[in-house]
Specification:
With 722 residues, the chain is of the alpha/beta class. The chain is 30% helix and 24% strand. The chain is globular, with a radius of gyration of 29 Å.
Length: 722
């Protein structure tokens, strides 16, 4: 009996032994389907042992071997590494790579119709039949719907011709997306700084081997065109490229730019793809047919056949950190993937993460700088608006100085952007009689009023309700008042102040589909909008040449809460927002409204001193003994019973390791104490970089028996401290 050890795409910790049936040849990396319990699951052959570990009577047999090239050794090693680092089951990581089981088998294709012979006899053919023959005369098979339209007939006419042997049905196989991009289709002229940066990445792609680059350029400096040159070099070698983006919203304009440069759109990978397109794309990647993939963080786990370059655009963005199920940072794991595959990786940003810039400054990565905007465009002027002096009118949120500038901008036929990173109408609804605040019944969060839906919403669990007629606490009627602004409230203020202006809200809950977002962005680009009111969705990667005025309604938002990265994230976000202004011929001005003019983030933004901010932040982290100078791990306990969860956390805390170089803080109630009905306790582990952190955690947790209803989650290198 022959055996193979298969890792299945399920949350299992190891590979299991299976018997190989007679007549089937399997090798390491082969894709198979095997029984596990009552299910048949896809998996990958991880080993070919001489002997099985399990008793023969318990060994089941491989059901199917799929006709697709085996998963590469590099990819299998990457899956093992990610599982060990994140302390997640290996099978759970493999499930990310086998997210489309249907793609393991080739699709049958689509029925189309062609002429049975090049010049069929036209004897006794009706005019309608002749029109079908004429429509197919170019020799290209056509699907039924297209043929009906081209010939002006119904399907019955086509089917009659098939019976007569004049037309034949053929099966069309859909090409893999981005299978024929042309690296020399539309080569752009680069500036001197762009060319110098591009050649360094191109050289590494050409010569092979691992090297990390930080492509560090101000907004509008043409970073995309630089890494397109590296993409072109990979394509000339017939190899594949992965471009990671933090949010698929960024892909809209990018797809157009890519197609202009390479003559074909890239393959997209994100959760909103149709099942058929996901299947074609996954299979195209595994077969090496899809040459360039642009995707969200999960695209990192696609089983590339011959990957030669990874680009991480907007590498600083916190959206690269996945917080649920498999917790990982796609940027960091992309670096590992590049190192293991011995290929180059380029991290791209105008506001690099602290860890990234430290690696560049210390020489661990190559620092490529683009200090100027492309085409001679100048940076915007940044003005700090002290709201203690420039007070908005009562009940309003736009300072008079900013309001006047918006009016002047519209009068000049330019566009204004107002940024507030808060969805809805108002973040808090309270009773003016007794002070009762409307809170989510499942989460430690206030309910946010949305005028668009007429409901109060929780942004954490999705709970929503109509505003009650009476206060639940004092029973007073008509006593609720909205406190603070969201983008909907700013939109109302804009409509009142500028009644003839055309405004648009750009937020994830308003443009909640790909089509809605595409339509909104096109309206902005075509000049159909005068004033854009947006959340962080507007800050990332979009190019709107007619925006000359940017107003940040609340520059202080995000600086509170004691989050380790609050200052860094706020600086990055506001710097990106400011970068939307004056990107081409017209000078831009940015207004930062704040009550804290002495705050370091605000001061450094006003001076446009990014490096000064990063150095100050780095010094503060080093003094506080925090990353990137140490490592962190968060342990989160969550359960429906408050007392049981708290007791479990105390028990785990008492068993905490007492080792040199390891400090354990907590347990303590999480800042978001309750989410989706579960109470949450947190412990934070601070460790020196030379500590084997995962082993310490594994030994500690394995020694404690937790109640079955209390769920323990480990977050290595946490980004969120909620």
């Amino acid at each position: 009996m022959r055996f193979c050890r298969v890792l299945v795409a399920s949350a299992v910790p190891k590979a299991y032994d299976y018997a190989v049936p007679d007549g089937m040849e399997v090798g390491v990396g082969d894709y198979v389907t095997v029984p596990l319990g009552s299910r048949a699951l896809p998996g990958v052959v991880w080993e070919l042992p001489a002997h099985a570990d399990a008793p023969p009577e318990k060994i089941k047999t491989v059901l199917v071997k799929h006709d697709i090239p085996p998963m590469t050794e590099i990819m299998r090693g990457f899956i093992d590494w990610v599982a060990a680092y994140t302390m997640e089951p290996r099978g759970g990581v493999l499930k990310m790579a086998l997210s489309v089981p249907a793609a393991l088998d080739e699709a049958e294709g689509t029925v189309a119709y062609a002429l049975a012979s090049p010049s069929p006899a036209a004897l006794s053919l009706s005019p309608k039949a002749q029109s079908v023959v004429a429509a197919l005369a170019n020799g290209h098979p056509q699907r039924m719907a297209a043929l009906e339209k081209a010939a002006g007939v119904t399907s019955s006419v086509v089917k009659t011709l098939v019976k007569q042997g004049i037309v034949r049905a053929v099966m069309l196989k859909a090409d893999a997306p981005c299978s024929h991009p042309d690296p020399d289709h539309n080569i752009k002229t680069l500036s001197g700084a762009q060319h110098e940066a591009a050649q360094k990445i191109v050289s590494r792609v050409r010569n092979g081997g691992y090297e990390a680059f930080l492509l560090d350029g101000v907004t509008g400096s043409g970073k995309t065109e630089v890494y397109f040159e590296a993409v072109a070099q990979a394509l000339r070698g017939g190899r594949q490229v992965l471009i990671l983006m933090p949010e698929i919203a960024l892909s809209n304009a990018f797809m157009t730019r890519f197609a202009e440069r390479f003559g074909e759109k890239p393959a997209l990978w994100h959760s909103s793809l149709s099942p058929a397109l996901r299947r074609r794309t996954w299979r195209g990647v595994a077969l090496g047919e899809s040459k360039v993939v642009v995707g969200a963080r999960s695209a990192l786990f696609l089983p590339f056949a011959n990957l030669s370059l990874i680009i991480v655009d907007e590498e600083h963005d916190s959206a690269f950190k996945q917080e649920e199920i498999l917790i990982y940072n796609a940027r960091d794991m992309a670096i590992v993937r590049a190192h293991q595959g011995q290929i180059p990786i380029a991290l791209v940003s105008a506001t690099p993460a602290l860890e990234t810039i430290q690696n560049a400054w210390s020489g661990r990565s190559v620092h490529l700088e683009l200090p100027d905007r492309y085409g001679g465009a100048s940076k915007p002027d940044i003005r700090i608006v002290d709201l203690r002096i420039e007070k908005p009118e009562r009940g309003k949120f736009i300072a008079p100085l900013l309001r006047d500038q918006i009016a002047a901008t519209i009068a000049d036929n330019h566009q204004a952007l107002l940024f507030l990173n808060r969805r809805g109408f108002a973040p808090l609804t309270l009773c003016r009689s007794c002070g009762h605040r409307m809170e989510c019944p499942k989460c430690t969060a206030w309910l946010v009023e949305h005028r668009r839906t007429g409901h109060l919403h929780c942004h954490h669990c999705g709970f929503h309700m109509k505003e009650p007629e009476k206060c639940p606490s004092c029973t007073d009627t008509d006593s609720f008042v909205a406190c603070g602004p969201g983008v909907e409230r700013i939109a109302e203020e804009v409509a009142e102040a500028f009644p003839t202006a055309r405004s648009l809200i750009l937020a994830s809950d308003v443009t909640d589909t790909h089509d809605k977002l595409t339509t909104a962005l096109e309206k902005i680009r075509s000049g159909e909008v005068d004033i854009i009111i947006g959340t962080q969705i507007i800050a990332k990667g979009h190019h709107f040449p007619n925006i000359t005025c940017v107003g940040v309604i609340d520059a202080d938002l995000g600086l509170s809460g004691g989050d380790l990265r609050a200052g860094e994230r706020t600086f990055q976000l506001l710097h990106q927002v400011a970068g939307r202004a004056g990107r081409e011929a017209f000078k831009g001005t940015v207004f930062l409204q704040t009550y804290n003019t002495d705050q370091r983030v605000i001061q450094m933004l006003g001076k446009d001193d990014r490096d000064g901010f990063l150095r100050a932040e780095m010094n503060e982290r080093e003094r506080a003994h925090m990353p990137p100078f140490t490592r962190l791990a968060a342990i989160i306990l969550a359960g429906p019973d408050e007392d049981q969860t708290q007791s479990a956390a105390l028990m785990l805390g008492r068993a905490a390791p007492r080792l040199q170089g390891v400090q354990v803080l907590g347990p303590a109630p999480a800042q978001m104490y309750r989410i989706r009905g579960n109470f949450r306790q947190r412990l934070l582990v601070i460790a020196e970089k030379n500590v084997a952190l995962q082993k310490v955690l594994a030994d500690w947790i394995s020694a404690v028996k937790l109640p079955s209803k209390v769920r323990l989650t480990i977050d290595i290198d946490p980004y969120s401290f909620l």
